[in-house]
């Protein structure tokens, strides 16, 4: 299995509308993103399947891994990973459905106990956040840099830091133990694919 370390890009259906999804994601992958999460809260199952298939192809071409947000069944259908939050269903059931090699991510907010439970249920990585003000998800519970250090000391699993991460704030997260930074706005709220690629390269360089 590939090491989980580096930039974790997450899509957003509002930021990436109007035909920008594929070119912007490809730019992030060219810039070195290692994981890509397809996060689309719409009920349009046909569109979700079509877009996720296209993203799987892009990830394959660029040596990245695709994760589906919330939907273990879609992940199983595509043979990719899944990220589950606290109200998105059982991690253990997703592990049973997807098999032992699939990537399985878990939202742990700011609670080490949730991370311990996720570890026991077979998570591949544990995600903490939000660390900073997030334009994408302003209401998410807040996590601290101290919590990140405690998690690093306690768990051997890769740790993902999420929530308002920018090129300015990411170095501190990496210094305190984040294996990956998960980013939406500071990566994809850009005027061009070239700018997304530049930002992705800068995030990726933090892990060299
Ligand atoms: C890497 C990563 N970490 C946390 C989340 C948040 O998941 P969740 O709490 O289920 O919230 P939604 O993303 O579903 O709104 C995530 N998606 N990815
Ligand atoms: C999807 C999500 N989950 C979070 C959590 O804290 O669990 S914060 C968040 C949004 C991340 O987007 P941005 O990089 O634009 O802040
Ligand atoms: Mg969720």
From TrEMBL:
InterPro entries: ThiamineP_synth_TenI, TMP_synthase
Residues binding Mg(2+), per UniProt: 70, 88
Record has Nucleotide-binding as a keyword: no
Binding site for 4-amino-2-methyl-5-(diphosphooxymethyl)pyrimidine: 37-41, 69, 107, 137
Boundaries of every Thiamine phosphate synthase/TenI domain copy: 7-187
E.C. number: 2.5.1.3
EC class name: transferase
Cofactor note: Binds 1 Mg(2+) ion per subunit.
A GO term, aspect molecular function: thiamine-phosphate diphosphorylase activity
Cofactor(s) needed by this chain: Mg(2+)
Record pathway: Cofactor biosynthesis; thiamine diphosphate biosynthesis; thiamine phosphate from 4-amino-2-methyl-5-diphosphomethylpyrimidine and 4-methyl-5-(2-phosphoethyl)-thiazole: step 1/1
Keyword annotations from UniProtKB, A to Z: Magnesium, Metal-binding, Thiamine biosynthesis, Transferase
Catalytic activity as recorded in UniProt: 2-(2-carboxy-4-methylthiazol-5-yl)ethyl phosphate + 4-amino-2-methyl-5-(diphosphooxymethyl)pyrimidine + 2 H(+) = thiamine phosphate + CO2 + diphosphate; 2-[(2R,5Z)-2-carboxy-4-methylthiazol-5(2H)-ylidene]ethyl phosphate + 4-amino-2-methyl-5-(diphosphooxymethyl)pyrimidine + 2 H(+) = thiamine phosphate + CO2 + diphosphate; 4-methyl-5-(2-phosphooxyethyl)-thiazole + 4-amino-2-methyl-5-(diphosphooxymethyl)pyrimidine + H(+) = thiamine phosphate + diphosphate
Binding site for 2-[(2R,5Z)-2-carboxy-4-methylthiazol-5(2H)-ylidene]ethyl phosphate: 134-136, 164
Record's function text: Condenses 4-methyl-5-(beta-hydroxyethyl)thiazole monophosphate (THZ-P) and 2-methyl-4-amino-5-hydroxymethyl pyrimidine pyrophosphate (HMP-PP) to form thiamine monophosphate (TMP).
UniProt cross-references to PANTHER family, sorted A to Z: THIAMINE-PHOSPHATE PYROPHOSPHORYLASE, THIAMINE-PHOSPHATE SYNTHASE
Family per record: Belongs to the thiamine-phosphate synthase family.
HAMAP family listed in its UniProt record: TMP_synthase
Protein's name in the database: Thiamine-phosphate synthase
Organism listed in the record: Geopseudomonas aromaticivorans
